[in-house]
């Protein structure tokens, strides 16, 4: 399969140095040298879940994972996620899911993200409603807090398991990554809330997020890399379920994208406040919305096609149906049909109606890793504190 053409940002050295000087002046906790992150601790939902939900509640089946792992690998994609490319670029192994007890190695971090996770406590839990019980408060208070203390107890005890745990100083030197919030919006949309009601819930959602960041900071975290949420109104599961929503010129549901942008506005303001309250923290706000939206506005320019159509799905103009999903079976004219993937996932943006393909994830990571979509404009490899 051919890889999609990736947009390259050309930044002159003097201009790049000016950006770094500006960022350092605005927020002096950022360093002007490459970071040496020994570990990543990730919090989030299916956009960065490397096996948490699959190990605990819902098993992910073929054709998930077919492109890179050639088998299901706990990820809601045909291959790797942005968090995988992030780890690789920092010279670290792929993150093991905290909830996966088999074959896990936490020596260079842990992944607390689970698919269907929200920031706030969801009203409907799997399997009744479809949202994960491992919302952000649980990822922090019941998982990360215990992991931090128990991992060091295991290291002190010695033996074979000691080598599978991070060293004590890794917790202050690690990169703490966040990609969560999309499901809080989805829960509102699918819970029959109006657009106005979902918007009204956003300040509280963002406030809950800020509380968790402060709690993690108080446990020693210093370097934070926080994604905003993507253009939810461009995803097939929104387009198929809300057909009457007004479309923009690219076919995305405008009002749903407006909600995502309102969430992002609130999140960015909250991060400004967090920088004031957490003086030793280097907090990078990453605008993945803009990069993802470009995949829907000019897909051909980047080597993609049919951005609004799921690669793996069944039914309708968006190849998405609430009655059967990717990897499921459906009876059509008396015959059982397996819902498999499209012929060339490498040129498709959407994988299963909700999530992105490996090719799209790689594209987005390549753009955000440069710092071109970050505030401050710091590349991933330099997004650490200077204290």
Automatic annotation (TrEMBL):
InterPro entries: GDSL, SGNH_hydro_sf, SGNH_plant_lipase-like. Keywords: Glycoprotein, Hydrolase, Signal. It comes from the Eukaryota. The keyword Glycoprotein applies. One of its GO terms (molecular function) is hydrolase activity, acting on ester bonds. Belongs to the 'GDSL' lipolytic enzyme family. This is Alpha-L-fucosidase. It comes from Quercus rubra. The lineage of its organism: Eukaryota, Viridiplantae, Streptophyta, Embryophyta, Tracheophyta.
